[in-house]
What does this fold into?
Amino acid sequence: MTHPNPTSGDARDDQTGRFVTQPNGHVRPLSPHMSVWRWHITMAASILFRVTIGAMTVAALIALAWLAAAAAGPDAYAGALAFAESPLGLFIGFGLTVVLFSFILNGLRHLINDTGAALTIKPANLLSTIAVWGPIPLAVLFWIALFATGRVSL
It folds into this structure.
């Protein structure tokens, strides 16, 4: 493989390694993103939002299974409730609560950004930080309230 030389004007003579030969034989510049971009909180918020969308699909399937159990009769519904009240069921419920709060906070971040607000670095970082870290304490407070009111117990 030959590399283009930026001084010769011919992309095939480069010795810098900034060009790659594609499988079809064409020489193209290597995308600079690997050397330019670094991990940032707004990237984490964006990726997390995509993950929460997938997790909300799982939550919808669980809700559908719960409705199917309710439609199948009292025995099936009792089995579904027994699973939901088990430690694994409570753990899944807590995780889905984190996902729900993440979905809400990221959705609010997007709504604010869609109005044209908070698009500069400082406010974008603040909203992203809230969207990434906020769901955990909100979910913990929510579950503390559930336990304190007696709606959930171990």
